[in-house]
Amino acid sequence: MNDAPAQPIPDGFTLRSEGSSFMDHIGPIYERVLERSVQLGVRLAPHQLNPLGTTHGGMLMSLIDVTLGSSAARAMGHEGAVATVQLSCNMIAAARAGEWIHTEATVEKITRTLTFISGRILAEDRVLLTATGIFRNPPPPKV
């Protein structure tokens, strides 16, 4: 049993739940919605780590994929999900259990059919991962 006091979740983040989706299985994951993007955050737990005791790469890639897709949708004013066309990730550093990590995203360009976006995952001021992605825009609403 761990007697260490629970670390607080930073201001502005609320628990994100999608029912029984994959993201719920790797969480708990917190979300902060900004004007044109979404940030995700996690207080790392043992089930989110690899056998070396550091952040699991697949978990980090899942976080950035959802961040970039959610941010692309938000920037377009779309409420639903958008499809990932391409995702490129660079693993730079790792974090350990108990650390708070969070994502950031920047929309680079929106065309008629695609959104180009970049992002990163940080632990404090350390960059853990950088990524770029291309997402398929949803079809326009039928009139």
Would you kindly provide a written description of the structure presented here, covering whatever features stand out?
The structure is a single chain. The chain has two helices and seven strands; from the N terminus they run E-H-E-E-H-E-E-E-E. It is α+β, with helices and mostly antiparallel strands. It is globular. It starts with 13 loop residues before the first strand and ends in a 7-residue tail after the last strand.
Notable features of this structure?
2 helices, 143 residues, 7 strands, 17% helix, Thiol Ester Dehydrase, Chain A, alpha+beta, seven-stranded antiparallel β-sheet, disordered N terminus
Summarize this entry quickly.
The chain is an alpha+beta fold. It contains 2 helices and 7 strands; from the N terminus they run E-H-E-E-H-E-E-E-E.
Helix/strand layout:
Layout: E1 14-16, H1 22-26, E2 29-33, E3 38-43, H2 57-76, E4 83-91, E5 100-110, E6 114-123, E7 126-136
Antiparallel strand pairs: 1-2, 2-3, 3-5, 4-7, 5-6, 6-7
Order of helices and strands: EHEEHEEEE
The average pLDDT score comes to 89
Number of helices: 2
- Give the proportion of residues in helices: 10-25%
Based on helices, strands and strand pairing, what is the structural class?
alpha+beta
How many strands appear in the DSSP assignment?
Answer: 7
Q: State the name of the first-level CATH class.
A: Alpha Beta
Q: What CATH architecture would you give?
A: Roll
Strand content: 35-45%
CA-to-CA gap between the ends? 58 Å
Q: What is the domain tally?
A: 1
Query: Might you state the CATH topology name?
Result: Thiol Ester Dehydrase, Chain A
The spatial strand order of the largest sheet comes to 1-2-3-5-6-7-4
Parts with pLDDT < 50 across at least 5 consecutive residues: 1-5
